[in-house]
Target: ATP-binding cassette domain-containing protein
Amino acid sequence: MVDNGRPSRGTDAGHAAVELRGVVKEFPLSRRREPLRALDGVDLTIAHGEFVALLGPSGCGKSTVLRMIAGLEAPTAGSVEVAGGAPAALIERHRLGVAFQDAALLPWATAWDNVALPFRLAGRPVPEERVRALLETVGLEGFARARPKQLSGGMRQRISIARAMALEPDVLLLDEPFGALDAVTRRRLNLELGAVWARLRTTTVLVTHDVAEAVQLADRVVVMTGRPGALAHVEPVSAPRPRGEDFTRGHAFHEVVDRLVALLDDPSDGRR
Ligand SMILES: Nc1ncnc2c1ncn2[C@@H]1O[C@H](COP(=O)(O)OP(=O)(O)OP(=O)(O)O)[C@@H](O)[C@H]1O
Model:
């Protein structure tokens, strides 16, 4: 395990945006077997307005970390706090935005209605101008009336991200949002998400298998060990934003990507 260091930016009202302390997660298996230990003592503090990417081998517990921040799983030991309280409190106030790999759009609803959904779920009037602006932010202003099956995978993911941002969440959770896309579309969407994020600076936690995506988007890249997952290494990425192709073509970018790829091949190298 490593000390993940102090977050680079200030905290709101004295607490971090997200704080995991000594988090252990076990899943029960059959009655006669030992439970499966997915996470083993994860400490992670994320500052307000910070973008953190989680990398690690398959099954190391990245999605479990995200699901705990989203209040969908409880830790077996340790604590998970979001904005100084239980994740459930943030969900109740509709302050958490979530976008997962499969986009999970309502298939019968238009792009517009999918983006408007969080307002309806929160029992609020739908601000038409804001929904229009969200569709424009993700480059889909011309597709408001289209239904998901009429759109490409990349377009569906962009709607999913617009929907996650609809209520201006305090914390945005992205689980492999571009995982199912081809490499070219994925690179383009990374550039777009990076540009949008540079304007909004929403506290974001991204789970990804793509090292280049993590380095391009994050303020800190957290590398986890294989199961049971723990933090193996934390890489700060201080390049200015927005990070365009100048950054991803540069030497510094490739140097960090190569180092993290080597670490993922042998995470014991990264333990500090
Ligand atoms: N609800 C569950 N019940 C039992 N085991 C689970 C459950 N959720 C996750 N696990 C196990 O916990 C471990 C971590 O799973 P998790 O999905 O968090 O890993 P991951 O790093 O996100 O994997 P991947 O990169 O392959 O998506 C895995 O061994 C998985 O099988």
Remarks:
- Residues 1-95+170-272 form a domain with the Rossmann fold fold (CATH 3.40.50.300).
- The longest strand covers residues 36-46.
- Strands lie at 18-27, 36-46, 51-55, 77-82, 96-100, 171-175, 203-207, 220-224, 231-236.
- The mean pLDDT is 87.
